[in-house]
Amino acid sequence: MAAKRAHLAVDYNQLNSFSSVVLYDTAHTCTRKTYKDKFNVERIIYRRKARNDFEYLIRWEGWTLDQSTWEPTEHLTPELLRSYEKPLKPNPGRLEEASRQFYSGVLSALRAKSVAPFYVSFDLDLWRYVSSNRGCNSQHKGYKLYSIEDLAFLKLPEHWWNYLNDHGQGQAVKPPLKIKPILSWTPATQMFKDGKLIVRQRMPLEKLCVDILRRPCDTANLFQ
Fold first, then answer.
1. What is the pLDDT of residues 9-40, one digit of tens each?
2. What is the rounded CA–CA span in Å between residue 98 and residue 86?
3. Would you tell me which of 104, 163, 196, 198 could form a disulfide with 110, CB atoms 3.0–4.6 Å apart?
4. Residue ranges of the Chromo domain (predicted)?
5. Burial grade of 76 (CB within 10 A; 0-12, 13-18, 19 or more)
6. What is the 3-state secondary structure (H, E, C) of the chain?
């Protein structure tokens, strides 16, 4: 699927040096006429409100993640806009890797003494697919509540929701899980390139904030 990239009379290298996000591609190989062309969309990462419309953060096919750009609705085809609300079935390899990340986060949380929420790296378009038509709204903004069954689309080990130590004692997740998708950015840093100090492009960070209740468990009450 293809979409337009914006072309405005702006020095994007200078603009990005002051911006908190990557607005437009600043690769040295690009020319002004490049922005008039159409590019293939690898995936839509995120959507944000912009005045009376939306802007979409696009990962472009063949371009690095730090060259993702915010694009207005008018630059996307109807098919792409529909794919944001109803993502297509992902590559199995991506789903397996995301499932491993999720399971690792839950397991670490159950082993730890802290009861604070934890974060899991998770592509946000993949999460929209996994969580589509699942869960219910939480009283906390941005969060939804999910049962164990709601997460069946993830490729998780059997009994992933509990941890037992060598003595057969541990902790288990007490449903529901409270989950919020989050988009953040790497810190602003500088680097030397061709003898000049320049601002390094900031990378989007896609993750889930997961908040769970825990209950003590052992081999006798594992399924309570």
1. 333 333 333 333 333 333 322 222 345 567 89
2. 19
3. 163
4. 39-76
5. buried
6. CEEECCCCCCCHHHHHHHCCCCCCCCCCCCCHHHHHCEEEEEEEEEEEEECCEEEEEEEECCCCHHHCEEEEHHHCCHHHHHHHHCCCCCCHHHHHHHHHHHHHHHHHHHHCCCCCCEEEECCHHHHHHHHCCCCEECCCCCCEEECCHHHCCCCCCCCCCEEECCCCEEEEEEEEEEEEEEEEECCCCEEEECCEEEECCCCEEEEEEEEEEEEEEECCCCCC
pLDDT at 36: 56
Structural contact between residues 143 and 182, judged by C-beta atoms closer than 8 angstroms: no
Residue 178 pLDDT exceeds 60: yes
